[in-house]
Amino acid sequence: MRLLFLGDVVGRSGRQAVLAQLPHLRARYRLDFVVVNGENAAGGFGITEAILEELLDAGADVVTLGNHSWDQKEALVFIERHERLLRPINYPPGTPGRGAGLFKAGPADVLVINAQGLVYMHELDCPFRAVEHEVEACGLKRGADAIIVDFHAEVTSEKQAMGHFLDGRVSAVVGTHTHVPTADERVLPKGTAYISDVGMCGDYQSVLGMDPSEPLNRFLTKIARRRFEPALGPATIAGLAVEIDDATGLATRAMGLRLGGALAPAEPLVWVK
Ligand SMILES: [Fe+2]
Ligand SMILES: [Fe+2]
């Protein structure tokens, strides 16, 4: 099975790139399943129902969220109508929506779990125990043919710990939230694909997808003068492609993807004398 995970879609630039490219990526790489993090899809803050439907129509099987889940208040309502939209599982009991779901990919069943880290983030329930609870209820080859975990967290240590905690028990642990891709994609020793942060789908000539002027102003003056506005230059699509052994549900390959915009791969490095 071939999976693709795309990082946080930021604003119009990120959306346009994903909507334009995802149908081609699905066909070109014969993808069986696609997860897209959409927490910044609406002007950088949250997601609307119209944008969710655009992402699903373009080829996303599941859209995950994070700490910006509720920036568009309508999401608190429409998430109940959309089982393909997930918010972090470790929010308090009674939070609208759900944090995990089992989805069809042809004959296979794919379990997707969204969880949020605790370090330098809101206090939520323990993400490790919340994810483990789901995996114990529906493990690899015990109800799920593949399991993808979107771990939305700030620090790489917490993300790496989650990777090792789940190694051999899920197909992939994909870090999101920092909007800066890390270069550590790999298959962990027991067969789980891992990356600390997959990066964003957005304009990288920016501060985390936002036009640099207001973030810079706030660092310099400590005064918020304007809203953050998404940068509007060409977006890089950043993702992680994972090949899964259908017999075990574990990963055989994990490959970072960067397409278009400022972060597209340069020519192979050649040292010049
Ligand atoms: Fe984000
Ligand atoms: Fe986030």
Textual characterization of the structure:
With 273 residues, this protein is α/β, with parallel strands linked by helices. The chain is built from six helices and 14 strands. The protein has helices at residues 11-28, 49-58, 75-78, 127-137, 156-166, 213-221, and strands at residues 2-6, 33-37, 62-64, 85-86, 100-105, 108-116, 139-140, 143-144, 146-152, 172-176, 186-187, 193-195, 237-244, 251-259. The strands form three sheets. It has a six-stranded mixed sheet. A hairpin with a 5-residue loop joins strand 11 and strand 12. It starts with a strand and ends in a 14-residue tail after the last strand. The model has no long low-confidence stretch (mean pLDDT 97). The site of one fe (ii) ion has 6 residues, from loops.
* SS element count, helices: 6
Helix content class = 10-25%
CA-based shape: globular
Order of helices and strands: EHEHEHEEEHEEEHEEEHEE
Q: Approximately how much beta-strand content do the residues carry?
A: 15-25%
Which strand order do you get reading across the main beta sheet?
A: 4-3-2-1-13-14
The biggest sheet, with number of strands, parallel, antiparallel or mixed sense and barrel status, is: 6 strands, mixed
Class computed from helices, strands and strand pairing: alpha/beta
- Please state the average pLDDT score: 97
The counted number of beta strands is 14
How many angstroms separate the termini?
44 Å
Our Rg estimate from Cα atoms comes to: 18 Å
Runs in which pLDDT lies below 50 for 5 or more consecutive residues are none
Bound molecules: fe (ii) ion
